[in-house]
Amino acid sequence: MKKSGYVIILILLSILSFSQVQAQHSFTLNGVITDAKTGEDLIGASVAVFESGFGTFSNNYGFYSLTLKKNTYKIVVSYIGYQTLKKEIDLSKNTKLNFLLNPSSEQLSEIVVNPEKRDANITSINMSTERLNIKQIEYIPVLFGEKDILKTIQLLPGISTTSEGSSGFSVRGGSVDQNLILLDEAPIYSASHLMGFFSVFNSDALKDISVYKGGIPAQFGGRISSVLDISMRDGNSKKFSASGGIGLISSRLTMEGPIGKNEKTSFIVSGRRSYADWVARGGGFVESDMILYFYDLNAKINHKINDNNRIYMSGYLGKDKFGYEKMGTDWGNTTATLRWNHIWNSKLFSNTTLIYSDYDYGFKITDEASMSSGIEDYKLKQDFSLYKTPDNTLKFGFSTTLHIFNPGKLILEDVEKENLLMERKQGLESAVYFTNYRKINDKLSLDYGLRLSMFNQFGEGWQNTFDNNNNKTDSVWFNNGELMQSYFEYEPRMSASYQLADNKALKMSYNRTAQYLHLLSNSTSSQPTDTWIPSTNNIKPLTAGQFAIGYFQNFLNNKYEFAVESYYKRLKNVTDYEDGTDILLNEAIESNILSGDGRTFGLEFLLKKKYGKFNGWISYTLSRSEKKIDEINAGKWYPTKYDKTHDISVVTAYKINKRIYLSANWVYYTGNAVTFPSGQYTYNQQIFPYYTERNGYRMPNYHRLDLNFHLDGKMEKRFETSWDFSIYNAYNKYNAYTIIFGESETQTGTTEATKFSLFGIVPSVTWNFNF
Amino acid sequence: MSKIKQLKYILFFLFAALITSCEELIDVELNSANPNLVAEGVIELGEPVWLRLSYTSDYFSKGTTEFYEYSTAVITDENGNSEILQYEGDGLYCGSEILGEKNTNYTLNFTEGKSSYEASSTLFPPVAIKQVSFNKTRIQTLEENRTAYKINIVYRNNPNQNNYYLFRFYVDGELQNNWYSLANSSYYPDDSFLVYQPAHVYFDKGDKVRVVAYTLDEATYNYYSQLNDLLGSDLENTSTPYNPRSNFGDNVLGYFAAWSYDTFEAEVK
């Protein structure tokens, strides 16, 4: 470990010193790119030299840095959906220059579904990565009319839904807990509202979403399958505005504006509240004391101290409540992020982040008993970006997180009765990383890096050892702060891109990732009762190595984009459960967890039309996801619950005029792998199913068409309104949510299979406003 | 613990009921598994043992069950007394001499061809039901909206024995629920009276209810918990379906249980 630490420091120092030598005789242009109308930082805006096309992109805070030799340049600043800005600059010294971009009027007559540079998919080194602008989400019809980023990304290749209507998603055959979901850098441990039918992300408060399915940059770690990096909006620093929407089962309101007159400080507050219980009670469907709702609140304030320093403070609070007056459950996330951006010099940018994240759920069983569980994080993160030359960017940093796990406790009000307390656990997850982007020549680019991660489990607590029959063979007590178990993993990351022509590129990537947190869950989709636990002496860290290769080509002046990617991912220490394992308040759960190997592989196709009145995409994924665990299915490879052979999404939108557009999406996928009986037997005068293998069957194939009609109010009014009329499952296909096998209630002694479907056709209407 | 699990199921059912839009019988093509041996054996307080040996069949088969007729089955108590069971047809083997006694462990052996199997279970004294009463409540779901009655069972906890119970309910001789209402009182070490209020068990006014409370050993309680998992295991949020673990070993389905019981009759007024 110590040796590895020295190695990484030496590498960093050598790269840093190299940059100093190389930087002589050059000057740096740097600054921030923002929306001229709202003052919002623009992420991924292009800054390039007109003559040569040499350039860079703004980072997550709108910051850019471009080092060039002394000369006069015509600089072009562009961002899709905004007017391109050209400016001549005499670069004879280091220059700070902020750019303000005005939204383009063209976007009113066409749909812009991608904020990136038109040929970014070819010129960028990234593969297995998708960036979504929040505008893109607005065009996609969804269940109950609630715009939802998690449901939108499920329409991309390699990302699939875990069950009907669910916000849970699987990336390249990985499970739900293998996705790192970050909201302003704070991890979200349960991203679902209303048992998974809504995500916790209110699209009104969001600015930008990046999904990494592979080629995961070294600055991200902690999950092995994907990273969903979500940025909240900063708030309009130019003027006060408000927007919102009223839907059939939920409504939302956002307010934002400057604080003070110098445009240095702005805020945004955005809230949502559902009222499904009011609707259900009003319709007489449920008892009068039934409670079923969620609310969430996003808030952010940022202050520009001076040109080189800016601070952001953002937070999220969400809660679900479900049950009755005397019994029920509630769950929710709370996050807080404090960030300090500092520009050390024209090339070196840093971000220091303090993060708090908490997820908890509780059951109230009666007035006399209650249960709770959850996880709490305290994190410090330091990131540096060194823009050495347009062809060379070095990123490095470190992070350390204190995880506090509360796997569950049952509290009984009667003091004479024994409470059941699952032991609280704690661990420190730390990492250092560097990643270096190098453009070798006009055709070849490389991005290579290394992440060294470590997990230390600390006392106080018992460390138990179990034999093959799950009997506890040894227990050792550790005092508070005493090291119980330590794991170390090296995680190399590498991407390469070779541009075959202006419109063609071949890319490949390899990344190794490690995960020290595990989710106890019996369901396919994400459920609030799922419980997070750390790696211990009995549960080893999950690791994955993924290799991907892809071919990318654009057609017709970049209007059409085609990509095909193939990947192979090998996993170690994947888990499953022994038969009949109860994950709730199970003190011996570690003995019930089985581990083995995993593998996923697949082929993904994407054809996208990015601009014009008519656009959208078609995605197709052919894949397999399997596990091999000695104790299950006689040690043979078997499909995971996330294995879907075929997955097709067709997403289209057509803008009829400046006020009206129509959109539709159609999805088709192979049913999930499930366990069905292969026989029956009679015991105690009842018929029971007989199972021969786990996940040996498939649910029926799934398909669905959704439609949306959007109508904007008259534009000249200061108070803008719009309507969305959506139809989910337009041709009323009753897809199977679950199939239950059992003895017939009407014909004793015979068995039957009953299909349960959640949704037939679901129309919805939402009224939106903005002033 | 089981209450929490029940609550989890209740909440899921409620939410599913709110949004479930369709339920229909379908045809599913299932594999034909090779027949697997099923053994069901019981010894009750004051009664001789019985054992039924049969085989699994295709899931949707409607034919007769295949039984195994050529076994040699032997019951042995912890004192070394043993008896060979007599075959009586339809896979049923019965004892006559050894009767179930309190606080006694029994071992049941049988053969199938060249293979032999063995299972043990302990018979504990019956629980004493002191009182049964009913509370008026309202069932309000998408399917029904009616007044019903929930049952309260008061029974004496025995602090000196294992306390694992299975409750079953009959109205006019007809079993009311296809799942097993299980209770344990491991958190109550004294001999006070305990109240059990099973979830999902409802009666109507005028019902003459017979409650049967079986006292089980821990392993039998766990087996019936697993059967309960199986009866509700096709829903989301429950464990992957599995075969309950038999005390005859991994190659046999079914169980050998020793138990005692108490009964109580009451009318819903």
TrEMBL record, chain A:
Occurrences of domain TonB-dependent receptor plug (ranges): 147-223
Parts of the chain that traverse the membrane: none
Keyword 4Fe-4S: no
Superkingdom of this protein's organism: Bacteria
Keyword terms: Cell outer membrane, Membrane, Receptor, Signal
Residues making up the signal peptide according to the UniProt record: 1-23
SUPFAM superfamilies per UniProt: Carboxypeptidase regulatory domain-like, Porins
Principal localisation: membrane
Family annotation (Gene3D superfamilies): Carboxypeptidase-like, regulatory domain, TonB-dependent receptor, beta-barrel domain, TonB-dependent receptor, plug domain
Pfam family membership, one: CarbopepD_reg_2
Subcellular location(s) of the protein: Cell outer membrane
One cellular component term from this protein's GO annotations in UniProt: cell outer membrane
InterPro entries: Beta-barrel_TonB_sf, CarboxyPept-like_regulatory, Plug_dom, Plug_dom_sf
Name of the protein this chain belongs to: TonB-dependent receptor
UniProtKB/TrEMBL annotation, chain B:
Alphabetical list of Pfam families matching this protein: DUF4249
PROSITE patterns in UniProt: PROKAR_LIPOPROTEIN (PS51257)
Name the UniProt record assigns to this protein: DUF4249 domain-containing protein
Source organism of this protein record: Draconibacterium aestuarii
Lineage per the UniProt record: Bacteria, Pseudomonadati, Bacteroidota, Bacteroidia, Marinilabiliales
